[in-house]
């Protein structure tokens, strides 16, 4: 059993087995870039609040996407452009997620 405490939670998270890191990926689609953020449900991060922070802080569109891979990765946050550095800063500063739980791909 693994127990991890974060700043945005009152109680620590307890998970049996391996904790998947938050995966942040920037993909080119139709000559435009999109940033995908996966595995946020594991860390009990409020996705609508994270989208709001991305929209206000980076001045881009950010939405919650429920796709076929939702069962495996949880819900996905999609943001316009390459927002990897901004999202990492928000996760570390506002949510207290350590760098070892954040993976860039």
TrEMBL record:
Signal peptide per UniProt: none
GO biological process, alphabetically ordered: formation of translation preinitiation complex
Highest taxon of the lineage: Eukaryota
Pfam family, one: SUI1
Entry-linked Gene3D superfamilies: SUI1-like domain
Sample GO molecular function, one term: translation initiation factor activity
Domain SUI1: 29-95
PANTHER family xrefs: EUKARYOTIC TRANSLATION INITIATION FACTOR 2D
Protein name per UniProt: SUI1 domain-containing protein
